[in-house]
Amino acid sequence: MKKYFLFVFALIFAFGMFFNVTTIVHAQWQVNQQGGPLKDNELTLTRPDADHLNEDHAAVTTWITKWYGLTGNYTNNGGFNTSGPMDLMSKGTGGMITDVSLSTMNGLQKTRDTDVVWDAANGGTRSWTVFTINPGEGNNMVRGGPADNFDHYAVIVIDSPKALTSVMSPTHDDYAQIWINGEKWYNNSRWTGAVYNVDYNIEVKLRKGANVLLYRCGEGTGSAYFNLHFDDETHDTVKIYPDTATNKESFFAEIEGSLWPVDPLGKLTTIWADIKRNR
Questions:
Q1: Which of 163, 199, 209, 229 lies in the 20 to 30 Å Cα band around 260?
Q2: Is the dihedral of CA 181, 198, 228, 129 positive or negative?
Q3: Whether residue 199 is found in the same domain as residue 162
């Protein structure tokens, strides 16, 4: 009987230690958005002001600095509230790529040979490249173009060795929308107040293998920044691309091979397109 109680005590102690470690890992910051991805009736909603955390993450050293995206922004957007509901990626590619599909491996692959062609007043033709930002710079989205009234697109690929519950922390000015693997996890039309000021720590699900994250931010006037980091456990576990890449070609070289599965959505879409072509 004594051995039985010792065994039970050991199990309880081990479970408690695991729970405490897990809690500590995920409680670096207060998680105030869970249960995602966003449901259909939440895709364009901004949460109430009372939900904001106003956490200072200035001490974080894992802000993501390298991104894959366009050589320039969508300009003269009429204000971010006007452009925010519009699928500007679909508009610039004739539906070849959409905001949603750009956050999938299938859609990302299409950027290899698909430029984005907007009207001249909106920036004209944009190609794809790798760029680096300074998270502490209040205008890190401008990148040589107009400083007001534009939309900015940025992509990363997250290679995870296992399925992972992660916490992402964005800052932005103004309207941020974030998709992962074809699902929208974040929508907030209000700026966060400062480059390192986080209003939402969002619990997200990463699958084993490649995860594509699209960060779109619409700017009005004033500061123009976007930033993102994850919890420490995630940064210690995953690999984020672009890594050493400096352009489109080297970016795709980094993510090819084991990182380049065709996700089920893309595969089904391709099969259906082939069927229609052969009818």
A1: 229
A2: positive
A3: yes
